[in-house]
Amino acid sequence: MKILFKIGLVLLIGLCNLSAVSASRAAPAPTAAQQAVDQENIAQDESLKSVCFSKADLEGLESCKKLVFQDRSDSRVWNQLGRIYYALESYGEAYLSFKYATALRTDYAIAWANACAALNQLQDYERALSACDKSLELVSASETSDDERIVAWNNKAIVLYFLGRYQESLDALDNTLSIKPDNLEAKLNRILVLHALAHEKPSKDNNFVL
Fold it and tell me: Could you give the CA distance from residue 128 to residue 208 in angstroms, rounded to a whole number?
């Protein structure tokens, strides 16, 4: 899986270099026929984006894959591709997609939080924790939506739980609830963490709400 990711990065650098070269040359004025083709391509791209960003199923997956095949430099599409893979329980592919999104845009806080969730499902808890910490570092240093902060804190709480660090997990959930006191997922997760604290042993079942 690491090899595939490195190959992807090499291809991305290659595409960037090619676009830089082509941009330096004077392009001829498009003909009427070329303009018609361009308009058709734009319409097709918009249709693919509509399906990619609205459906977390196989149809959405295929649309997102077509988009990244056409343009590997759109971090938002890579993040959405990861979300669909995650929904389909393909966590390895989800992580690679989120990782690609963060490689393209290192300050993509929600993609880091999503990578944390995927790594958690892969039981790679230490790397998941690092991804969540990176997301929280980014959201604290910029003006982001409360939703992004909630996702990052909630995901970190879940990772800490599986690392057996229950008090830290509880603190993370309290941070989530300080942002949105009526967040149902955080409330449910907090009950599980309190139960673990009372019994001081990790649950074998993943009952958390992601």
Answer: 15
d(C-alpha 154, C-alpha 174), whole Å = 9
Six-digit token string for 190: 């907090």
Please give the Cα distance from 72 to 9 (Å, whole number). Answer: 10
- Whole-angstrom Cα distance, residue 160 to residue 16? 38
**Predicted local distance difference test score (pLDDT) of residue 192:** 93
How far is Cα 36 from Cα 41, in angstroms, rounded to an integer? 9
Helix locations, the chain, DSSP H? 2-23, 32-52, 58-70, 75-87, 91-104, 109-121, 125-140, 146-162, 166-179, 184-199
Instruction: Report domain extents, the chain.
Output: 46-106, 129-199
State which fold the 46-106 domain adopts.
1.25.40
Q: How far apart are CA 142 and CA 199, in angstroms?
A: 38
| Mean pLDDT (10-residue bins), the chain, 210 residues | 27 25 47 56 79 94 95 95 96 97 96 96 97 94 84 96 96 96 93 91 57
Reduce the DSSP state of residue 96 to 3 states and report it.
helix
Cα 145 to Cα 7, 67, 82, 139, 151: the distances in Å are: 33, 26, 20, 8, 10
Amino acid at 200: E
pLDDT at 140: 85
Kind plus residue range of the DSSP H or E element containing 153: helix 146-162
